[in-house]
Structure formats: structure tokens, C-alpha cells
Design goal:
CATH topology of the largest domain: Rossmann fold
Distance between the termini: 133 Å
Oligomer: single chain
Strand order of the largest sheet: 1-2-3-4-5
Protein name: DNA primase
Largest sheet: 5 strands, antiparallel
Pfam family, one: DUF5906
Number of domains: 6
Structural class: alpha/beta
CATH architecture of the largest domain: 3-Layer(aba) Sandwich
Shape: elongated
Length: 840
Amino acid sequence: MASNYDDVVCQLESVGLIFDSLVVGKLTRCKVEGEGEKRGWYSLHEITLDGGDQVLVGSYGIWYGDDNGHRKIELRRRTLTDEQKAALRARLKEDRKRAEGLRMAQAEAASAKAERKWGELSSGGEHDYLTRKGVGAHGVRFAPEGTRIDFEAADGKIHEVDVAGALGVPMCDTAGRVWGLQFILSREHSAERIQRLGRDKEYWPQGLDKIGKFHWLGGVPETVVLVAEGYATGASAHAATGLPVAVSFDANNLGHVAQAIHKKYKRVRIGFLADDDAFAKCRERSCQARLVVADSPSCPACGQMHGRQNTGVVAADTAALAVNGFVLAPRFADEAARRAAWLDHGQKLTDWNDLHARAGLAVVRSQIEDGLAGVGLATAPARRAAAPPRGEGGGGSAGPVEIRPVSSLSELLERFVIIYGEGDVVFDRELHKLVKLKDVQNLTLSREVYARWTESADKQFAMLDNVGFDPTGRDTMVSCNVYAGWPTVPKAGSCELLLELLWYLCSGERNAEEVYDWLLKWLAYPIQHPGAKMASAVVIHGKQGTGKTMFFKAITRIYGTYGLTINQSAVDNPRNTWLASRLYVLAEEVVARKELHHVKNALKDLITGDTVYVDPKFVNPYPERNHVNITFLSNETLPVILEDDDRRHLVVWTPEAPQSGNFYRMVEEEIEAGGIAALHDHLLNLPLGDFHKHTKPPMTRSKEDLIDLSLDSTTRFWRALVQGEIEGVRPKTIALSTDFYKLYAYWCSQIGVHAAPMPKLIDTLKKKHGMKVGRKRWSDQYKTHGPHGVCMIPEHQPGGGTVTVIEPERPPDLQEPVWIGRLVEAFRAAVRDYKGGGHV
């Protein structure tokens, strides 16, 4: 054993290193008294002196940030030769390099763990710390249920701790890399651990490199950046001024953070938001009396030197000196009350957040602006104070979207998805939209961070098929969802006049109550079930001035950015970007009379189709799930074309005259007083009963009229024929196809419509109305003809709510050619009479 073994043990133990026995020949990490991490280290080597004695030489220390606290082992009353001294110096230098390399490796490993954990945290949430401090969540995240962190306990074993509900604050460098996390524990979820630790903050993971690392609030600095110790102080200052703030996490890190910021932003002045640590407790363990640091260097209770200083101000002054910065300390209006609060009640008022809580943000802003003016800096209003976290007040915003720069690799990895095969197209998970890769580069504060993202194996990829608008959240194909949540906020209030207006619009129908009830539920269902595609549409038409637009534009506003009012030009535009990401469309006069049949099929697909194809600029056309529900408004009597068996449309013809008096002005006043949010709330909570998206709309008199107006000439002719409405031409007969068409063409000329070609007439009536056709022989008094094309014309007899179809029947005593011949001759004669005696 080395002759100085016990002496070396004493030297190591004197600085607090904890070990069972000394390890010789390699760098060894160990714990330190009062510390949970292995901050201590030593590196020992055995050499032989000239006299033959074996001794231990080497170095030791304790890591604090980037300082390893290096000390040499003292050889008391020992003499080394010059060669031994030189060898020892070389070995100690090598040991220092190895210790620094090991420390850096540990910091790198801690950074990797921190970035992974940061990616697991949620960007939305609440925390009692934020409520208690009266500040917002700026660039922080929240630990969801099940979040756990590991640490090495005093027994050397790895333990896991549940930190669900904790606030996660990233500790980053100027390139945005996350090196560690500060977890502010929730008093609700972690009360026991807070009590055991005696604090509510934990730095994680073990081995993190905190020196020069900070949390950034705000954008790129233009003239000044503020540096604060704690998050609450930084958040108060940022909220008051809108200026960028760096949180250094403790006073000893202020200088390191300032140096890092100064290196990156050389022309920016750095101001230090000092904690005024004017109050402390006596350092003597037997005393611990409360005292005011500036009163005396000795404790008023025990008379000993209390050993305290105003750490916050001293550290800020020192840091400011190194970067030509300036110090701002909070000033409290009643210094005597502040002093008494500490001495009598143990309540410290020391930092800018305390000033915020006591005096308000206006005072914080005023004092900071005074300080800036004192060092010659302009106090122009901040460009924009920090916005509340996304999600408060709905998934979107009625105001402009705030686009903030990205500072960290972890945010790039989490936020952006490269769309493979589409060139430089990226999906932004925060803004829920496709952007260009160049936009991501411009948004990133540091070129180094952007380069690390492009080279990272962890960056996300998706196909264009995985980009979609899915308010339901049930489409397994959609991993990049452009739906950002419901964009407006319901609020209980008065919407009685809006509902009265809707009732008035429906009141002209004979079944007005049924229509009003169905329409209200049709409006409510997709609000209660976001993304629900109704299997029907609504048509409201009538004279101007009845309030159609007023009510349904209120509905459109409930949908925020997902609602849209369109006109004919939107429908005609082949680049139909207006369809992208829509839940509700209000179509005003979208069809001119001459265009009815031209756009009928396109509108039908919009109402019933599962998919729409969006064709934006700079991006290839892509399919999107159809979630659009549509209401048509028109002053025309024929706003849309309906099939005679239509089951998709509710049609309402509004009353002839507008409401009397100042009714519409009162509706506008209700809207201005919050009526739309109240209508939103009413629809959101409306009982739907058994109503669902496939519930068929009720038949109305207006719909019957519209169907009749929409009939094409073939259907209109068929109805007139089988119901016996063509003079002299009786149904329940058989006609040659050529004779049948001649009757149809003449009938069309009489009512002023264009006749369809004969093949279309026969095919339409056969497929749509079930007319029987065939090729048959027929006989007249001279000979048997054919086979020729014939049409079987039934008779329709309405009664009891149903229609009885009666087909022509051959008498048993007549052969078929004879029977058909007699009917053909009779039909020809009837048509001849109908035409006024002309030859068929």
C-alpha cells in the first residue's frame, strides 16, 4: 500500500468526496456530500520515490458546470525528482483532458435524453405554478399522464419518478439544442415529492451541462435582450414589454448565458433583471435568524458574521461588467412593508415577478422602460406581446396567426414533416398546413439548428396521401391533419331573435314546424359532431329582404376559417382551392339559369361525394375527404335542378314580404352583442333525439314546385302521357317507337321546350320510368309488319297516397300481332286527332 494512502484519503474527503476505497490507475467518478449526482472525481497513480517509498499522486475535484474544480494531490514532506515532476505534470494534464472528455460525453448523453423527453411533452396544458405566478406558458411544455424521469439515488440504484403534470422548461444553447430540462413539479400531482425534496424544481437528466444554457422567450432581439434568473421573472418581463428574455435558471449562470448571447448577437445590448436578494438567513446552523443583508455584516441575533451577500445583484453586476451590459433591479413602493414581510413573516419580495404580483405589469413595464432610457436605449413599444398558448379559445383564432421563429432541433423534429415525392413541400404541424422547405429554413433562428435537422435521422416523412382534413380524428390514413380544432368559442347568451328569424324564413311552408325542427337539427348536428358530412343540403330561396343572408352568414361565422361564402365565380374556377379544409359553404346565387344543367352534377358530387379534389398552386392536386355541408341561397324561382325523386334537399320558399318594423336592426344588435356565440352555444347543446346525418328532409310545397320546374322534357312528357293529360291520347296502349317519338316532338313544340333525340327519349323512359320496349310483329288489314320497335304505355291512376300502374293486356281470343296492330292503329289515330288532323 502507498505510504501516503491515508493522507490522500483525507485530502479527498476534506472536499466532500464519498468513496469506499481508492481506485488507482483510472479516472473515477464519485458522489459528493449533500449532492445526489456523481459530481466528484479523482485520478490517482502510484510512483516510487528515490528512497523506495511508493506514493499516490494525481488530481481530484468536483464538477460545477464546465469547471472541474481541479486540485493536485499534495505530497507532504515528500521530494520528487525532476523527472518524476515532469512525468507527473504530463500525467495530470492527460487526466484533465480525460476528465473533460468524460464530462462532455456525459453532457452529450444527457442532451440526447433531454431532447427525447422534450419530444414526449405536450404543448398544451395548465399548471398551478403559472396560475400562482400570474404568467403565461411561453415555449414550455406539459408532462402528460405517465411521464416518468430516472435518476441515480444515494444507494447507487436507478429509480424512476412520476412527474405527470409538471411544467417542462428547456435548457438550450444559442443553436437551440436542448441540453437539459427544468421540471417545475405540480403541487397537485407531486405534493409528496415536493415536501420530501424541499423544493418544486428538478433539473434533469443527471449529468446535464447547465453552464451557458438558457430558455428563450420571444423573437430575435433587435436592440436589447433581457436576462433573468427564473422563468417567472422572465415571463413577467416578457409579458410587460414584449422584449426577448433569456432565463439563466440561477445567478451563477447569468455571466455564462450573457457571454453566449453576446457572442451570437454582438450588437445587441444585454440587460440583467437582477433578483434583489436583500434578505437572507444567518449561515450559522445554530442560528438561522432572518436578517437584512445590507444592515450589518454580522447577525443581529447571534453576533457572528452572517456570511451573506446580495447574490442576485452581485452576480448581475459581475455578468454585466463582462459584456458591457446593465443591471435592472425591481423597486418596491413600500420598502418598510417589504422589510417587515420578511423579518416578521418570512415572506420574500425580491424579483420582478414579485413586483408583477404586487403592483401589476404596468409598473414592471414602466420600471424596465425607465432603466432602458437610463442607458440610452429607445423604449419603443414591443412589436407583439406573447400570444396565449394555442388551444385557449378554440383551435383557431379570429385574429391573425402569430408565427414565431423556431430555435431548437427538437421543435423542428416534432413540428415539421417532409412530404416525400412532392419536392420541397413540408407539413407544419403547428399551423396545420403545407409550406415550402425554404419557409422552414427562414423560420429557424440558427443555420446550425436547420442543418442538424436536415441531417437528422429522426426527421419525419409522410406521403401526400397522409395529408388530409380530418375533423373526426378517425381517418387512419391521415397523419398530417390540416384541421386545427374548432376555430370559434360558444358562449351562453341571447340568440332568440336569430332563432325567430329562422322560424320566419320557414313559416311560409304548410309544414313549417316540421321544417324548422329538421333544419335546426341539420345545422346543429355537424357542430356537435365536427366533420360529419350530412347526406343532404338546404335550399332557401325567395324574394330579397327577408333575412336569408343575415341568418346563414351568422351560421358561416360559427365555422370561422372552415366556413365560406361563395358565388358563381368560385364554382366556375377550375382551381378550386376554396374547397380545401371546409366544413360549411354558403352558396349565394351560384347557378345562373342557362348554366343549370352544366353544373348540376358538380354540385351533386359536392353534396353527396365522399371525396373532393383540391388543386392549389405550386402543389400537385390531391384528394381530400369531403366534410362540406352546403346551403344554397337565391332570389330565383329555380335556384337548383332537382330530380323528380330527390331525397337530398330541403327546399324552403321564404314569405313574400319582409318582417315589419325594426326587426332586422334588432337582429343585427343581437349579433353585435354576442348573438353568434350564443347561437353556437344553442346549437351545440340542442337535443337531437334520433336525428342523424342520413335523416331525410321533409317534403315541402316549395320542393314539389321546384321539382316540377326542374323536370326535363322526357319526364314531363311521360307524366302527362301516363296520367292521361294529353288530349285524346289515352295511356294503357302500345305504340310504334317512331309514332311515340312524333307525339313527343309535337308535344314539346306546343309547350316551348326542346325535344331530346329519339334514342335518348326511349332510353331515359326505359331506365328511369320503367317503360317496357321491345321488337314485335304487328298486323293491319293488309299484312303483317315487322318486327318493329314498340313502346308499352301504362296508365297511372293515383289514389290513397299511392299510384296504381295498369299495363295493357291482350285479350285471350286475339293473337298478339293482331292485338298490337289494333293498338298501334288506334294510337296513330289519336295522335292525328291531337295534331289537328295532320298525317302521322
